Amino acid sequence: MILNQFLLLAAILFCLGVYGALARRNAVLVLMSIELILNSVNINLVAFGAYHGNLSGEVFALFIIAVAAAEVGIGLAIVLLIYRNRRSIDLNQADLMKG
Amino acid sequence: MSLVLASVDWNIAQNVFFYIFAIIMVFSAFKVVTTDNIVHAALFLVVVLAGVAAQFILLGAEFLASTQVLVYIGAVVVLFLFGIMLTRAQVGADSELDQPNRWPALLTGSMMFAVLAATLIRTFEDTELPDETVTTTQQVSDTIFSQYIVAFEATSVLLLAALIGAIVIARKD
Amino acid sequence: MSLATPMTEVPVEEHGAETGHALVTEMYQPTGFFLENVWIIPAVMAVSFLIILFFGKRFAKKGSEVGLAAIGISWVLAVITGIQWISQRGKVPEAEGSGEHAAGALLAAGEEATEGAEIGINAVVRTITWWSNGGIDFPVGTLVDGLTIMMLFVVTSISLLVHVYSTDYVAGDRRYTHFFAFLSLFTAAMLFFVVSENIIQMIVGWELVGVCSFVLIGHWWEDQENSDAALKAFLTNRVGDVGLLVGMIMLFWAAGTFETLDINRMINNGEIGHTTLLIASLSLLAAVMSKSGQFVLHTWLPDAMAGPTPVSALIHAATMVVAGVYMVARLYPVFYEGMSISGSSINALAVIGSITVVFGGLLAFVQDDIKKVLAYSTISQLGYMILALGVGAWTAAMFHLFTHAFFKAGLFLGAGSVSHSVHSFDMKKEMGGLRKFMPTTYKTFVVSSLALAGVFPLAGFWSKDEILVGTGGWGLFGGTGGNGAYTLMLVMGIVGAALTGAYMTRVIYLTFFGEFRGHGTPHESGKRITTPLIILAGMAAVAGLLNLPAGFITGSHDGWQERFGHYVEPTADYFPAISHGIPSYSLAIVSSLIAFAGIGYAYYYYFVKVAAQSPTATELSSGLTSTNKVAKAGHTLLKNKYYLDHLYTGIITGFTKGPLAKSTYWFNQNVIDRTVDNVGRGAVKGGQFIYDKVDQGFIDGAVNATGTASQGAGQELRLMQNGRVQRYATFLFVAATILAGIFTVIV
Fold first, then answer.
1. pTM > 0.80: yes or no
2. For residue A21, what is the nearest residue in chain C, using CA coordinates?
């Protein structure tokens, strides 16, 4: 297997995740896209770790998983709060910082 | 530069499975970001995450693969589904999931991919992975609890903070 | 100058051989405690001034006892110093046929002049450097030689007598203490001037005595007249002081030093050019004209009689006015070489002196105020002294200074005694017939007047005769020798003598004879007034014996003759080789006859004709001036003091105050001020322009523009923030991509 396989795969997932984060209206969907991004990064890390024979890649990816989980929890809590206050999680309507 | 034909003898199985999983993943990811049904998006995400776990196995990171399945598919996606439910997402096709103006995102995505691809191909043309890349759980745990002990403790504190934070933010007062 | 070894070599000069004066090749350096510490004498008076000024009022006699004690001490010290000098002078043997007779030897035998070079006596000089600046040292110190001790004696004696006199005359005055303080200061200043070692000190002393004169003339300054007179004195002296400063500074730059003796030596050795000396001597002559009351700048002296009589006696008869004469005498080589005194028949110094003699004398005839007569008489006698210096008769001038001090002071104090009794100075209105009431005053006044007129054998005869001898203008019976042939001066001197006798006779008649015209009963003054009068009259009588011309009486050159000249005239390398006149019987007889003629005519006019008219008359009612037009015009001219005051105050100051000041003011206002104003206006306009166009328009515009631009940009950029996170994320990712692209693809 060549390294580039994994890296390109990760690149594709990353770009799709970026597209999703920018193009989706629903806040939860944006969070999902961000999960895509994070996972692509994980693939990258593990691929490089395997390439160098180093465990650091895996360990780093592990921590990323943990952090991502925490982040999703907080993110969804915030989204819930927004929903409770505004009855909608449409990001186009969350423009109080306009101007 | 022939990627497909760069497979070497007994790596054929790995390559084949890699490509199968890769195609499934890309398709599912594509669906995550484009589908109208939000629950479908979550389910396609599950597929993607599973695919990632499969890639981990291919790379020999068995502990990581299991952790991926457990944590991501087992907890994160469930969280997502709870989130979808609690925010009264429309069941079935929802036309308001996408931005009206999608082309900046498209542009960004494609530009980014172009740059990344160009760079990657130029840098890591035909670099091969070594044959033995399997790592055991024991090695991982050894590394965590010796070299990265501080990060481990910090992560646990972080998780505690996230836990408390989530409760505080989301409670009904 | 440090004390040299007793015998010093002095270069031989050819000059001396021509004029016949003995050459000075060696000099003896005298020593002596009082000669070296002569600074004590002015210091005592200065300390007395300070004590009286600050503590005078607390003393029992209001400070006058301090002044008297101080001047007494100074007089004693001056006498002792004089004795020390005489004893030192005695150590130097007189040359064979002593210097004063070298001229006579020349005329008679002709050989002795070139041999028997005289041993001179150097002056005692003590000096310290006061301060130095720019490589020039300003010394201060004392110089003692015969001239100095003569002046010390004169100043302290007259001052002592005036102090005693003043305790009675000024008693009860509102500023008694102040008067004595300034008498002390004046004496200190005059003594300081007299012992000056260098020309800077002379200038300081000169100015100091001028200031004291101002203060003392204006003693009763509550009357406008008195303060005007004081100012006139000071300012007229100031006019002359310009000449003083110019002359002294010229001498400094020519000689490179301030020390009087060094300057004199350099001139004697011919090291300073003749033109420099001519200009310097003419400048100094201006100073002498103002200070010593020579014609043209003498106008302040009669007005100075507004001060108290002791002041007039001390300052304006005996001491301050002779400061100019002393200065000429001290710096004699400047004048001797500068004006080419030897061998000529006319020079500026002699001309001024002789004019003063005659004009001053003429003015004395038309005065009604007794002090003014004496003032003009002083002017006339000062003219004699300058005349004598101008013809080269140095010793004669100094001797006349010496005798004049005594008899003129006696005359002034006598006039004061008279006024003390009749309370006025006006002879015609308030006096007359006083010889019955004030016998002592009368007798001393007459003796002093006869001395002034030059009657044999009183002091004035000897000194005046010596001056006439010195002119060298007498041609009969072999002449009198001398430095030149100043015939004109001789004539004017004789005329002056006649005038002197005449006006003094007039004064005596108007004051002491006839009937008393005033009010009240006059009485003789107290002992403190009459004692000084007696002393002065005594000196006037016998002082002449100090300088009897050798061989005049006894025909032989005995040691007791010409003592004054022997001790006072310097025989040193700093004194030019002047020649001396030999006295002539014929001249003495002729001049005495002419003087008697003057006295006689006045006697006839007053004692005979006026007395015949009436006992209280003061002039002939049908005299010459009321009948003859020319005489009347002359009388008017004299009454108006030759219109000199009119010239000074009316014309000169009037022009300066009027047209000159006005035109200068016009120039100032319209030209200078206008230029300044225009510059100011221009600056304002320029500032306005810069403010409006450059500052407000350009610079502020630029500053404002940046602000506007920032604001505009901000306004535009603000619209990018639409509040949506995804747009921000888009920017973030795009930027990151672009950067990544640049770094990876291009770089």
1. no
2. C726
